[in-house]
Write a structure and sequence with these properties.
By secondary structure, this protein is of the alpha/beta class. The protein has ten helices and twelve strands. The protein folds into two domains: 169 residues, P-loop containing nucleotide triphosphate hydrolases (Rossmann fold, 3-Layer(aba) Sandwich); 119 residues, Histidine kinase-like ATPase, C-terminal domain (Heat Shock Protein 90, 2-Layer Sandwich).
C-alpha cells in the first residue's frame, strides 16, 4: 500500500503494456467498462494508437471521444487544460468520467520527456478534489527506458494490473509536485549571445530576440510569436523577479531557444497551465507564452528562476 493518500474520486493510474497487442488487450476493456457504465470517455493518445483502439472497439468506437495527443500534447503544458475542458463539459452530479492519456512515447525528445513527466505529477494537483474520473496513462515497457517506467511509478498513485486497480507503493504523493520544480537544465552554449535587461530595456529585449531569431532562419510569423512571448517573460522578470534579468538565445538542430534568468521564484505549481478567469487581473503572461511557444521549461532554483522557450523550426 502507498504511504501517500490519494483522492478517492480522481483515480490517476499507470498501465504498463508491451507492444500493440498488449495495448489493445488492456485498454479496450477499460474503455468498454466506461461505456457500459454510461461514463463519458475521452481517449488522448498518439494518432496510430487511436487507430488500434478503434479497430479493437469496432462499432463501439463511435461512442468514444478521441483526441490526438501528438497534437494536443505537443506542448505538454496544454494537456491539463484539455482534461479540464473535458471535465467541465462532460461532468454531471453522480456521474463519473473516464479517460486515457498517453503523453509519453518513444519518439519524445529528452526535453519533452522531462516536461511530460512533470505534467504527470501535476495531474495529481490539478484534479485533486475537482473531478470524479478514472484517468489511465499507458506506458509501453517494450519501447521505453526502464528509468521512464520507474518515474511513472513515482507520479501515479495507482497501477492498473489485470483489470484491477492497486495502490502504487512507489508513489511520491501530490505534495512533491507542489514544490518548486528544480530539475537540472543543460548548460546554454558558451557562445550564446546574452543581454542583461531592466525596465528601461524592453525595447532592446524585443529587438535582440527578433534579430537572433531572424539570423537563425525563423519565419516572420514565428519570430513575431517568439518576440511577444519573451516580452511577457521579461515583463514578469521586471515585476516579480527582482526588476530584471538576463536573456540568452541560441539555435539547436530542431529549435530556436530563448532563456530568461532572474531572481524570482515560480511557486504556483500550475503556472501557465490554467486559463485566466474572465476579468482576472494578472496571471496571463505564462498562459500566453504556453499558447505561443512549442515547449516551455520552467525551473526555480536557490538562485532564482529560469524559463526557456523553444520554437521548433518550420
Amino acid at each position: 500500500m502507498s504511504a501517500h493518500s490519494h483522492d478517492p474520486d480522481f483515480r490517476h493510474a499507470a498501465l504498463f503494456y508491451a507492444g500493440d497487442d498488449g495495448y489493445v488487450d488492456s485498454l479496450v476493456p477499460f474503455i468498454r467498462g466506461g461505456l457500459e457504465a454510461q461514463e463519458p470517455v475521452l481517449v488522448m493518445v498518439p494518432g496510430r494508437k487511436a487507430d488500434l483502439l478503434c479497430e479493437g472497439l469496432r462499432s463501439d468506437a463511435g461512442e468514444v471521444h478521441f483526441a490526438n495527443m501528438a497534437e494536443v500534447g505537443a506542448n505538454p503544458a496544454h494537456i491539463i487544460p484539455a482534461w479540464r475542458d473535458f471535465v467541465t463539459k462532460r461532468s454531471a452530479p453522480g456521474r463519473r468520467l473516464r479517460g486515457i492519456g498517453e503523453p509519453i512515447w518513444a519518439g519524445r525528445t529528452p526535453d519533452e520527456l522531462v516536461e511530460c513527466q512533470h505534467h504527470e505529477a501535476l495531474l495529481n494537483v490539478a484534479f485533486h478534489g475537482a473531478a470524479a474520473m478514472d484517468l489511465l496513462c499507458p506506458y509501453d515497457e517494450r519501447a521505453l527506458d526502464a528509468a521512464v517506467v520507474e518515474e511513472a511509478l513515482r507520479s501515479h498513485p495507482i497501477v492498473l494490473e489485470d483489470g484491477d486497480f492497486h495502490d502504487c507503493a512507489e508513489y511520491e504523493g501530490a505534495e512533491s509536485a507542489t514544490a518548486p520544480f528544480a530539475k537540472p537544465l543543460s548548460n546554454p552554449p558558451a557562445d550564446a549571445p546574452q543581454l542583461a535587461f531592466d525596465v528601461s530595456a524592453l525595447d532592446a529585449v524585443r529587438g535582440f530576440v527578433a534579430v537572433c531569431a531572424a539570423e537563425a532562419g525563423m519565419s516572420r510569423t514565428r519570430r513575431d510569436d517568439l518576440v511577444l512571448a519573451v516580452n511577457e517573460l521579461a515583463s514578469n522578470s521586471i515585476l516579480h523577479g527582482g526588476g530584471g534579468g538576463v536573456l540568452r538565445a541560441w539555435s539547436e538542430p530542431s529549435a530556436f531557444v530563448v532563456e530568461i534568468r532572474d531572481r524570482g521564484r515560480i511557486d504556483a505549481p500550475l503556472a501557465g497551465r490554467e486559463a485566466p478567469a474572465s476579468g482576472q487581473i494578472g496571471g496571463h503572461g505564462l498562459w500566453l507564452v504556453n499558447q505561443l511557444c512549442d515547449l516551455i521549461q520552467m525551473r526555480t532554483f536557490d538562485t532564482g528562476s529560469v524559463v526557456r522557450v523553444h520554437m521548433y523550426r518550420d
